[in-house]
């Protein structure tokens, strides 16, 4: 199998595909044409810039170039995660950053060091793409988990207050909602694992196959990635939910409802 390199002309021809969603938007009066055009321009610009940066980082192959890039990715992912949640609390961005950093870096480096055997530890060819895939899925998980937990706490406030009045601790009264938040955050990756290979061909596997890799080797890496995403997402969601609980818990074992804010 050979790798077919795409030229700017090829991408320009591929852009014609965008006429399909644009036409649907016009026909149904969705008003998405401008947004679609902006998204297409941003996609092209951002990925082109990323390609240039990665090419430079790969060639340099120095940890002091790799680490700052990983840090920028983590900050961006934390901001995106909280932006997607309709509920938040003071310090939510920092909590999301801490949760994602611990969950994804621990999973990434445990895999590259113990499973793949990457040497040196900062090899950008492995570390950057793997962390990026974990962040892309992890931020969705923690966003869904946080939103569900805080929304359920607000929705079930009378019931929770009743449990507290009857002698339950704040932890005991809140635990069902924490569990539901973690469960909600895990649903996307569990669903993905259920249908992978049957309904969908994941991006990493598809990319490797298009690049000429043996399908069985691509499958092995994709299995590894799915397991990594499941581990990182679970760890990230439970960490953020626990931090959120600690932030809204009053020292007198009462919930501080006023710190939970709503954002559209």
Automatic annotation (TrEMBL):
It is found in: Membrane. Pfam families: UPF0014. Its main location: membrane. It is a multi-pass membrane protein. Keywords: Membrane, Transmembrane, Transmembrane helix. The chain crosses the membrane at residues 12-32, 39-57, 63-82, 94-114, 126-146, 189-211, 223-245. One of its GO terms (cellular component) is plasma membrane. PANTHER family: PROTEIN ALUMINUM SENSITIVE 3, UPF0014 INNER MEMBRANE PROTEIN YBBM-RELATED. Belongs to the UPF0014 family. This is Iron export ABC transporter permease subunit FetB. It comes from Lujinxingia vulgaris. The gene is fetB.
């Amino acid at each position: 199998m050979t790798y077919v390199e795409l030229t700017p002309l090829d991408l320009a021809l591929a852009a014609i595909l965008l006429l399909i969603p644009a036409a649907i938007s016009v026909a149904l009066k969705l008003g998405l044409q401008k947004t679609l055009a902006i998204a297409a321009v941003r996609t092209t610009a951002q990925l082109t810039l990323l390609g240039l940066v990665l090419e430079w980082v790969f060639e340099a192959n120095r940890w002091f170039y790799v680490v700052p890039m990983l840090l920028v990715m983590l900050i961006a992912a934390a901001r995106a995660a909280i932006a997607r949640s309709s509920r938040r609390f003071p310090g939510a961005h920092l909590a999301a950053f801490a949760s994602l950093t611990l969950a994804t870096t621990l999973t990434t480096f445990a895999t590259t060091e113990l499973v793949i055997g990457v040497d040196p530890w900062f090899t950008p060819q492995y570390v950057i793409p793997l962390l990026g895939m974990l962040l892309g899925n992890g931020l969705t998980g923690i966003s869904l988990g946080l939103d569900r937990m805080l929304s359920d706490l607000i929705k079930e406030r009378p019931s929770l207050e009743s449990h507290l009045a009857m002698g339950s601790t704040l932890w005991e009264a809140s635990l069902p909602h924490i569990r539901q938040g973690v469960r909600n955050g895990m649903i996307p990756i569990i669903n993905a694992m259920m249908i992978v290979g049957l309904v969908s061909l994941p991006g990493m596997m598809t990319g490797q196959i298009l690049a000429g890799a043996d399908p069985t080797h691509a499958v092995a890496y994709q299995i590894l990635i799915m397991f990594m995403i499941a581990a990182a997402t679970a760890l990230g969601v439970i960490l953020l939910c626990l931090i959120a609980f600690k932030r809204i818990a009053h020292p007198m074992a009462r919930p501080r409802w006023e710190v939970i804010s709503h954002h559209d």
